[in-house]
Amino acid sequence: MAPVRWLHFLLSLVALLPVSRAQSCWRNTTCSGPRGTAFPGPWESNIYAPSSRTVSPRRILSIASPNKTADYEESIPYALHMDEAMVVFDFGVEVGGIVTVNYTTTGPGAIGMAFSEAKNWIGQSSDSSNGAFKGPDGALYANFTKAGHGAFVMPDHKLRGGFRYMTVFLISDGPTCVHIENISLEIAFQPTWSNLRAYQGYFNSSDKLLNRIWYSGAYTLQTNAVPVDTGRQVPMVEEGWANNGTLGPGDTILVDGAKRDRAVWPGDMGIAAPSVFVSTGDLESVKNALQVMYNTQASNGAFDESGPPLSQKNSDTYHMWSMVGTFNYVLFTNDTEFLLKNWDKYQKAMDFVYGKVDNSSGLLNVTGTRDWARWQQGFNNTQAQMILYHTLKTGSRLAKWAEDTKALSGRWEHQAEDLRRAINEHCWDEEYGAFKDNATETSLHPQDANSMALLYGVVGKDRADRISETLTQNWTPIGAVAPELPENISPFISSFEVQGHLNARQPERALDLIRRSWGWYLRNPNGTESTVIEGYLRNGTFGYRSDRGYMYDESYVSHAHGWSAGPTSALTNYILGLTVTSPVGLTWKIAPQFGDLKSAEGGFMTSLGKFSVSWEKKLEHYTLHFVVPQGTRGNLTLPYIRSGEEPSITIDGNDIYRGVYYIDDTATVTVSGGGAHKVVVR
Ligand SMILES: *[C@@H]1O[C@H](CO)[C@@H](O)[C@H](O)[C@H]1NC(C)=O
Ligand SMILES: *[C@@H]1O[C@H](CO)[C@@H](O)[C@H](O)[C@H]1NC(C)=O
Ligand SMILES: *[C@@H]1O[C@H](CO)[C@@H](O)[C@H](O)[C@H]1NC(C)=O
Ligand SMILES: *[C@@H]1O[C@H](CO)[C@@H](O)[C@H](O)[C@H]1NC(C)=O
Ligand SMILES: *[C@@H]1O[C@H](CO)[C@@H](O)[C@H](O)[C@H]1NC(C)=O
Ligand SMILES: *[C@@H]1O[C@H](CO)[C@@H](O)[C@H](O)[C@H]1NC(C)=O
Ligand SMILES: *[C@@H]1O[C@H](CO)[C@@H](O)[C@H](O)[C@H]1NC(C)=O
Ligand SMILES: *[C@@H]1O[C@H](CO)[C@@H](O)[C@H](O)[C@H]1NC(C)=O
Ligand SMILES: *[C@@H]1O[C@H](CO)[C@@H](O)[C@H](O)[C@H]1NC(C)=O
Ligand SMILES: *[C@@H]1O[C@H](CO)[C@@H](O)[C@H](O)[C@H]1NC(C)=O
Ligand SMILES: *[C@@H]1O[C@H](CO)[C@@H](O)[C@H](O)[C@H]1NC(C)=O
Ligand SMILES: *[C@@H]1O[C@H](CO)[C@@H](O)[C@H](O)[C@H]1NC(C)=O
Predict the structure, then answer these.
(1) pTM above 0.90, yes or no
(2) Ligand 8, from 438, 443, 485: best to mutate by most atoms within 8 Å of Cβ?
(3) Which residues are the signal sequence here (predicted)?
């Protein structure tokens, strides 16, 4: 090659370098996450995740000083002289990780740094997270003795897992002035992804608020997928905070919340894991969270209520959630290696919990009484019966996938049927039209058990219609108050309620509740405007559980809690109507419900390939397009366009009238072979 051509060649290599260089992941973790989004399109503008793993504040929220009392807004650049007492930086969305502050000082002193998820707790002390309940977390300090440049890097164990606002304040006896030159945050969550926006699922509809809610659930789950050595320290530190606990195997693990507890909680995953599947697709974090529960199982078969180092014990419901989680994970991944590795332990777990069923009533006698936050738990509590029913039903399917030869599948299916009869006989309140809190005379009709009865199919159509109706008696303009946790609104339990109404084919009710509850939070200027909250009170304050007046201060509430991400899976699975019914979607179901929407589209990935659906509803007909991988098979369940009137259906232009199954204003057709198809229903 001639020298000039060599030069061109070398230059072209240099020009390529920045493009081909992969963005790095968190610290030393392998970048095993996806590189790019599976479904590129305009809906990606709804993704809250930043495009870089290193971010800076988007704006200054306010400056408070003795001489300048009024707050004002100022845009970037945010460099400022610290003769003012305190400046509040706003990252614009929930973030979390390691903060670096570069500054220049004119003399000795210190700057303090404090963090908050909600606007309400902005100040010189961070919101509360350490779990010792001795007050809020306080501040970090960068101390300096003389004039010059400085850089403060947050120590690893002081990683702040979830915040939107960062307050910086000056402490000095003299006339020191500090110039804040730069603030940057190295994001720690979703540690194996180089591109935080590389979602493997999407959702888009004619309702902008619902779209934002879907993405706020997805982003919350990203902030809850954390490096395995950044769990909350146990025993809890009483001053400040420490996030250096070891959580489990692998590089990334799904915890309950970004700020706290930063621990694995299998019950939370009952909502979180299905929403991960339809959105980010990060099932690696789900797998590691489940594996740690198997790794710490007690010799009698009991799972802990939470993962290490927290390792709470004594919860029959959360024990069962680890089992349900196993089913969900294998359904989404077909990871039979994981299933077989843990199968003996799963059976032991089933024996442990089923051994508590009382022969005379046929009901579970709950003796491990810790639970999600409901006041009462124990004896023949109805919610626990619903979870056991679902555990047995899903266990029966898992036994088949594990190719179990001990006839477990049939046995568990039988036991589920016996339990369903017992629940309907002992726990139902015919006069009220819903389940009681347990099999005694009580006037409490809980949100959790009744929502799960709808979702898990414990009742026939008549009872389902009544439950769906009576559940609305708990509603307020900003969400459903849970009778079993009075005064509190739980988007966790409401996530079951939303799916319950949808399973009972009440889409208007489900969308109404999503808009009231999640819509209220996402539009609340005091919140993160990007994530889903752990819980709140009937009067619209954020103090979930603080009304009980013992340990919780209002700022302890987590504003990025995956257990509240239910609308994300609900909108995909029921409104769009797309679900997998056997591992990775070898069989699937498409059963849209329109509610008041004009259109919806979305999809997700499995190891078989892409699944996607889009529908558009007009007055006299609707059109539905779908794409499913080759070699798969599924049912289309199509709502009637006019109630009571069998519709005419075409698929790819062909009239469909044979093999259609009509029930409850829906027509079901089986479609084999995969590919892209167009359905018109009039
Ligand atoms: C990366 O790993 C090496 C070896 O395990 C360790 O010495 C180093 O501190 C790690 N770096 C970071 C930034 O964690
Ligand atoms: C406030 O204003 C007074 C009078 O102008 C001035 O002497 C003082 O230094 C100012 N204080 C601060 C903190 O800027
Ligand atoms: C801030 O300080 C860090 C740590 O010393 C340094 O790596 C970084 O380059 C500095 N950034 C700026 C913008 O000065
Ligand atoms: C740094 O400054 C803060 C605030 O004045 C003070 O409480 C703390 O003790 C100082 N830390 C050190 C190591 O000097
Ligand atoms: C985490 O940090 C705390 C506070 O510095 C310390 O007491 C504890 O031993 C550390 N824990 C681990 C697991 O490193
Ligand atoms: C699921 O995994 C099993 C065992 O690895 C395999 O035989 C089967 O083909 C897989 N199913 C699908 C749908 O990928
Ligand atoms: C349920 O468990 C409690 C606590 O162990 C026990 O006192 C009670 O007798 C049990 N009830 C039944 C029906 O087995
Ligand atoms: C039944 O439920 C009610 C309402 O939660 C509760 O007050 C009562 O203690 C429960 N009874 C038993 C035996 O669990
Ligand atoms: C439910 O548990 C309570 C408390 O142990 C008991 O009094 C009641 O008889 C039980 N109900 C049934 C149907 O077993
Ligand atoms: C936000 O918080 C402020 C201060 O606590 C309060 O006055 C205001 O009503 C809150 N806004 C909403 C929408 O809750
Ligand atoms: C909201 O309700 C809680 C208890 O239910 C109460 O402690 C709190 O003061 C109330 N806050 C407002 C602003 O009404
Ligand atoms: C379609 O629905 C029918 C009736 O519920 C069921 O028996 C069949 O297995 C379903 N087919 C597929 C492919 O899921």
Answers:
(1) yes
(2) 438
(3) 1-22
